[in-house]
Amino acid sequence: MPGEKAVETTGGAAAEKAPEQQSGSGSAADGAAPAKKAAARKPPVKRSPAKGTAAGEAPAKKASARKAPAKKAPAKKAPAKKAPAERVAAGKAATAAKAVVRKPESRTALFRRARRIDRELAEIYPYAHPELDFVDPFQLIVATVLSAQTTDLRVNQTTPGLFAKYPTPEDLAAADPEEVEEILRPTGFFRAKTKSVIGLSKALVEEFGGEVPGRLEDLVKLPGVGRKTAFVVLGNAFGRPGITVDTHFQRLVRRWQWTEQTEPDKIEAEIATLFPKSEWTMLSHHVIFHGRRICHARKPACGACPLAPLCPAYGEGETDPEKAKKLLKYEKGGFPGQRLNPPQSYLDAGGRPAPPLGAG
Ligand code: SF4
């Protein structure tokens, strides 16, 4: 769902073993506390490739420098200014050449760390929820289709008008496409989205008696519905667990080194082995909430992040607590959320509803 892009996920086949449970440690639940907490803690031990790279690079540099003491430019030049990718490659090569520099994390350690991060996230975001407004499966599936290439906020600001005029699949199936296009214009790609939601509604009417089916295999046959959309619907409207691998989820699980996979299907399959099936839906919400509020794509707010002590990628973003605090979004930064009608738990935690379209 995704405020960003729809990304497909794979089904929930994977193992759900839970080798061990650890008790969670407390984390602040508001924007200010994390900043203090993160600031108070020592920078975490880095397990990331970045460290391996840096560690691997030093010997390479030294070796080059020693080799060409008298000759000027060439010897110095090579190691001095490498692009990050080159540094990684150089670091890896040097590391490989020198044999093992650091022990890879064991499977058990990865399990424990992943579970611990999710427990922390559950404390930071006890109100995590799907960020699309909906009252029934039909509204959720339509809203999820509309959320491709735009924010959940924009979808939430647009769907009240759509559902007021077309409250059922039958209504939307019989709609004049041009009228629907006008309503959907603010969500972008409105012609294609109009086609999708009308086609989707027709399929619901013709093949499923006007009801959204509750099975993955049926959902993915609907126009405009991929596995990610299907899992959003199953997890949030039918209570059937699923992992939603959107752009935030992909970025964060790689930063945390839960997986090295880059394809959504493979990411989903690997992450599914780290958590019990019953936790998949909430895990997805936790990770996506964190990606939207703190661990942003371009400027992660590491200095205000309660996960800093557990994160191999700490330092990828701003580490100064005051500067990092300014990067926080939504309720963590004191701003409105994405839903016009958020759950009460969100309001109780100080979250604010999003404004309607045109109001801000
Ligand atoms: S990269 Fe930075 S913001 Fe993201 S989880 Fe790690 S410490 Fe937090």
UniProtKB/TrEMBL annotation:
It is an enzyme of class 4 (lyase). Residues 38-49, 63-80 have a biased composition (Basic residues). One of its GO terms (molecular function) is class I DNA-(apurinic or apyrimidinic site) endonuclease activity. [4Fe-4S] cluster binds at C295, C302, C305, C311. Residues 1-94, 331-360 are annotated as: Disordered. It comes from the Bacteria. It catalyses: 2'-deoxyribonucleotide-(2'-deoxyribose 5'-phosphate)-2'-deoxyribonucleotide-DNA = a 3'-end 2'-deoxyribonucleotide-(2,3-dehydro-2,3-deoxyribose 5'-phosphate)-DNA + a 5'-end 5'-phospho-2'-deoxyribonucleoside-DNA + H(+). Residues 23-37, 50-62 have a biased composition (Low complexity). Its EC number is 4.2.99.18. InterPro entries: DNA_glycosylase, Endonuclease-III-like_CS2, Endonuclease3_FeS-loop_motif, Endouclease-III_FeS-bd_BS, HhH-GPD_domain, HhH_base_excis_C, HhH_motif, Nth. PROSITE patterns: ENDONUCLEASE_III_1, ENDONUCLEASE_III_2. Binds 1 [4Fe-4S] cluster. SMART domains: ENDO3c, FES. Its cofactor is [4Fe-4S] cluster. Residues 146-293 form the HhH-GPD domain. Keywords: 4Fe-4S, DNA damage, DNA repair, DNA-binding, Endonuclease, Glycosidase, Hydrolase, Iron, Iron-sulfur, Lyase, Metal-binding, Nuclease. SUPFAM superfamilies: DNA-glycosylase. HAMAP family: Nth. NCBIfam families: nth. PANTHER family: A/G-SPECIFIC ADENINE GLYCOSYLASE/ENDONUCLEASE III, ENDONUCLEASE III. DNA repair enzyme that has both DNA N-glycosylase activity and AP-lyase activity. The DNA N-glycosylase activity releases various damaged pyrimidines from DNA by cleaving the N-glycosidic bond, leaving an AP (apurinic/apyrimidinic) site. The AP-lyase activity cleaves the phosphodiester bond 3' to the AP site by a beta-elimination, leaving a 3'-terminal unsaturated sugar and a product with a terminal 5'-phosphate. Belongs to the Nth/MutY family. This is Endonuclease III.
